[in-house]
Amino acid sequence: MKLKKLLSAAVASVLTAASAAFTVSALNDGEAAYCFDTSAALTEWQTYGSIEETGFQTSQTTLVSKNGNGSLLVSENVTEETENRFGGMYIDAATLGLDSFQGCTIEMSVLLCENAEGFYDNFSVFSDGMIWLSSSPENLSTSEWTTVSLTIPKDATNTRAGFTIPTFLMHKGDIVYIDDFSVTDPDGNLIANRGDHYAKEITSTEKVSSGTNIVLTVLLVVLILVIVGGIGLIVSSAIKRFS
User: Fold this and answer.
1) Which of 14, 100, 128, 159 lies at a 20 to 30 A Cα distance from 243?
2) How many beta carbons lie within 10 A of that of residue 185, not counting itself?
3) How far apart are CA 212 and CA 110, in angstroms?
4) Which of 27, 16, 91, 87 minimizes the C-alpha distance to 53?
5) What are the backbone angles phi and psi of residue 141, rounded to the nearest 5°?
6) Which residues of 143-169 are buried (b: 16+ CB within 10 A; e: fewer)?
């Protein structure tokens, strides 16, 4: 009985080590309708409202991204209080081959820029048409991406979806990065990428040299041999002890 327990423990330890070594996480890179890895699909977006009054601007950048090779950077230059306090950027449902966004779920990932704390009080993902709907993040972080989502009711034939101007407070500078703006239809299918996905480029500092790969492989083999040898010694000792 003790021998069986020892063997079971040994097998369990090997399986645990193998599981930890081969666990991977799926990033779903390239699945969003707009990945903002390039500027290829930016012409499909339209602006409205207090754009000039707030100095609202967007640009594609490769400096920061959640997935892929880039994101959309939103900045403002508000020098005085504005009379019109609305506006933002949106896409039409027809652009995505939809009659409307009814029953769809809109999502986007957001990262706050440095020194932009307190300047996203008006920021939200929205849908407009039959009715106005919006969803705002409670807190944004400069170190972790936040997902903001909005589900449009099945009886709301809204034809626009996008995000609002982040703030109307006096501010000059970058405010948020937006990545992976996705649209899921009522049947649970993601709208395909609009041609702006580009896999992240790995810089020379991120690449692992072939020599390093060889060393790591050798170390892994040695580790496996040590584990197997250790198990063999335990089993052999147990057999001698109980035989």
Assistant:
1) 14
2) 16
3) 35
4) 87
5) -120, 150
6) eebeebebbbeeebbbbbbbbbbbbbe
In one-letter notation, the amino acid at residue 198 is Y
Whether 31 and 181 have beta carbons less than 8 Å apart is answered as no
CA 68/CA 65 separation, integer angstroms: 7
Of residues 32, 43, 96, 39, the one with CA closest to residue 67: 32
**Token pair recorded at residue 61:** 């950048």
pLDDT of residue 239 exceeding 70: no
129: left (phi over 0), alpha (psi -120 to 50) or beta: left
Q: How far is CA 18 from CA 57, 213, 222, 223, in A?
A: 49, 19, 14, 12
| Model pTM above 0.70 | yes
Quick count: other Cβ atoms within 10 Å of Cβ 82?
18
CA torsion angle 179 165 59 34 (round to 10)? 30
116-130, 189-203, 215-229: which has the minimum mean pLDDT? Answer: 215-229
Quickly tell me which residue has 């239809």 as its tokens: 185
Q: How far does CA 137 lie from the centroid of its chain?
A: 15
- Mean pLDDT value of segment 205-233: 67
Distance CA 3, CA 29 (A): 48
Alpha-carbon distance 236 to 243, whole Å? 10
Asked if pLDDT for residue 219 goes beyond 80, the answer is no
Residue 180 near residue 107 (C-beta atoms within 8 A): yes
φ/ψ of residue 135, rounded to 5: -140, 125
Give the position of tokens 């009886």: 155
